[in-house]
């Protein structure tokens, strides 16, 4: 039995016990729908396109916020990493803003943008900005000083210095921050949808729960878990290829 088969044994056993417990009334059918019913609900949801539409809405907000945070976080991180004096000035502000939970900004984002994509993406961007910023600052500060001296000697412009020396040298650490932020983006997007925003998988799960459609709710929850796993795996593969390591990435 190979590694993947052994890893699938426990989930399959749990599904069998779940189905048996639901059919024998050991498990409450009101809160724990049968796996067979969940499968049928998933087939119907994918068939009519409702799950796919909700998935696109969630990923649209998550990736939009992530892209804004990546651009702002890398640029600000490079500037602060190269200019310690500026970092000492803005450092207290960063320390004051960073601990604020991103979901606490939902009322403020609602005032600015109203319900919809922009509100959700802005909260995601706030949550993703901090890990990218901090890791970028650390990565830039770890650059070999002689490389920066070469750029200064050659009188490179800031864009040229950024493209040819700073980003390539700090890329390893920056990608770590991007991987962390990408996982945060999906979590925050679904949270905003559950709390307030009427779109995406989070909102769809709330509607299913309120309609006592536990089968559909579980189907969307399991689908969301599969999406999170696939996103993490794809990110690891992309980072491995980016670095040219060719190392095996275990799913």
Number of strands: 0
Sheet with the most strands? none
| Straight-line distance between termini | 17 Å
CATH class: Mainly Alpha
Low-pLDDT windows of residues? 245-251
Tally of distinct domains: 1
* Alpha carbon gyration radius: 23 Å
Q: What helical percentage do the residues reach?
A: over 70%
**Can you give the mean pLDDT?**
82
Helix and strand pattern:
HHHHHHHHHH
Number of helices: 10
Strand content: under 5%
Shape: elongated
CATH homology superfamily: MetI-like
CATH topology: MetI-like fold
Structural class computed from helices and strand pairing: mainly alpha
CATH architecture: Orthogonal Bundle
Keywords:
mainly alpha; disordered C terminus; 81% helix; 10 helices; 251 residues; MetI-like fold; 0% strand
Task: Characterise this structure.
The protein has 251 residues and is mainly alpha-helical. It has one domain (32-243): MetI-like (MetI-like fold, Orthogonal Bundle). The protein is built from ten helices and no strands. Helix 3 packs antiparallel against helix 4 (84-97) and helix 3 (50-82) packs across helix 9 (200-210). The two termini are 17 Å apart.
Summarize the structure.
The protein has helices at residues 3-23, 35-48, 50-82, 84-97, 106-113, 117-141, 145-153, 158-195, 200-210, 214-243.
Topology at a glance:
Layout: H1 3-23, H2 35-48, H3 50-82, H4 84-97, H5 106-113, H6 117-141, H7 145-153, H8 158-195, H9 200-210, H10 214-243
Helix pairs in contact: 2-10, 3-4, 3-6, 3-8, 3-9, 5-6, 6-8, 8-9, 8-10, 9-10
């Amino acid at each position: 039995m190979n590694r993947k088969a052994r890893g699938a044994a426990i989930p399959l056993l749990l599904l069998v016990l779940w189905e048996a417990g639901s059919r024998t009334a050991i498990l409450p059918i009101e809160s724990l729908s049968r796996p067979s019913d969940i499968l049928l609900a998933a087939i119907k949801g994918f068939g009519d396109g409702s799950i796919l539409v909700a998935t696109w809405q969630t990923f649209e907000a998550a990736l939009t916020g992530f892209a804004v945070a990546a651009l702002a976080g890398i640029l600000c991180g490079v500037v602060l990493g190269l200019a310690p004096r500026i970092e000492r000035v803005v450092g207290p502000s960063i320390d004051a803003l960073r601990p604020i939970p991103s979901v606490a900004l939902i009322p403020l984002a609602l005032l600015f943008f109203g319900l919809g994509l922009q509100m959700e993406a802005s909260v995601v961007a706030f949550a993703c900005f901090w890990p990218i910023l901090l890791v970028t600052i650390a990565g830039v500060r770890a650059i070999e000083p002689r490389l920066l001296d070469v750029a200064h000697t050659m009188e490179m412009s800031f864009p040229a210095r950024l493209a040819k020396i700073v980003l390539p040298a700090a890329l390893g650490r920056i990608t770590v921050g991007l991987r962390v932020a990408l996982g945060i983006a999906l979590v925050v997007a679904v949270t905003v949808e559950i709390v307030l925003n009427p779109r995406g998988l989070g909102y769809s799960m709330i509607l299913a729960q309120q309609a006592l459609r536990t089968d559909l709710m579980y189907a969307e929850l399991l689908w969301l878990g599969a999406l999170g796993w696939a996103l993490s795996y794809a990110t690891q593969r992309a980072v491995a290829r980016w670095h040219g390591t060719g190392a095996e990435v275990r799913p």
